[in-house]
Amino acid sequence: MVGAGVHALSGHSSPDRTGTTKASLAWPSVSVVIPVYNRTRFLPAAIQSVLDQEYAGEMTVVVVDDGSERPVRASLGDAFPSVRWVQQRNQGLGAARQSGSEATQSTLVAYQDDDDLWLPGKLRRQVNFLNAHPDVGVVFSDVCHFVGDEERSPGWFQRFESLHEAPRQWTSETGREWIVARRSLLDLALLDSPPFAQSILVRRSFLQRIGGWRRDARRGSEFEFATRATLAGGIGYIDRVLVELRRGHAQVTRNLDPARIDECRNLFRWAAALRGSDARDVAPRLVRRFCRVAQGLRKNGRTREAVRVLAWAGRLVLRSPRISRLRRSSDAGRVTNSGSARGG
What we know:
The protein is of the alpha/beta class. The chain folds into 2 domains: 22-246, CATH 3.90.550.10; 257-343. The protein is built from 13 helices and 10 strands. Strands 1, 2, 3, 4, 5, 6, 7, 8, 9 and 10 form a 10-stranded mixed beta sheet that branches. Helix 9 packs antiparallel against helix 10 (276-299). The longest helix is centred in the C-terminal third of the chain and has 24 residues, at 276-299.
């Protein structure tokens, strides 16, 4: 009988000359990282949705308790004996995901939140995609939102037309999938909505190459992670809802403004070090994103924080002659006007 936290490979396979079995190539080991902080209400369902995946390879579930006031493991008792636990002081979501990623040596790494649900076939479908495309480092899927027992929302990424502009698409028995164009994914990551961590499956080698999750990114880490992954190349998309995101209950961050400010700070620090074509591709989109965030902050009465975000945008404009031409655009015009009006 397979244990609760590890799904063992069924059947027998003979090794090739290198000692690697054909089964291990088809079904590589996977670790699933679930960060948690002070929330246990929906955690059992989140874990169970992962364990219910029909996957023939080795799968290890790692729950990272990010310094909860009351240890989460004790509240669950012996419900999930095979789950691996990592306890750390409170450092934020980025650090928790990175700690979980480093806790195993699996070939692939996936992520889940403590209140969301994986749908059946999620893991197998994504592993099949990576097996079929060895040059792809990470694959993500569509997601939907739900509240309680209400009807699920339409797929979140259906609204973003640029994502669906792929020169080559493949159709499998369960829907369409493709490799996302760099331009489309940068638009998605920096202007619209990055891939949700719960929906991605990443090769460990790719994760190490891009530096993993930033430990200093307490909130808003998915924008910066997705952009670094995009620049490293090779990201696939499965045009099917494979994850359900729970909404409508007490979230970790009731007010999203602090998360957006942290996100902009992390993106600015990272983008300031870019050079060449990466800088040319990222900076204009980042300026537009900062302007959007600043407008929202001003609307919420956070004038000082809005000016700070606009200052980061202005520094990106001044850094490159090409970006400086954005001053003639409406977005950059708002940067200049707001900075002169409020910054003196």
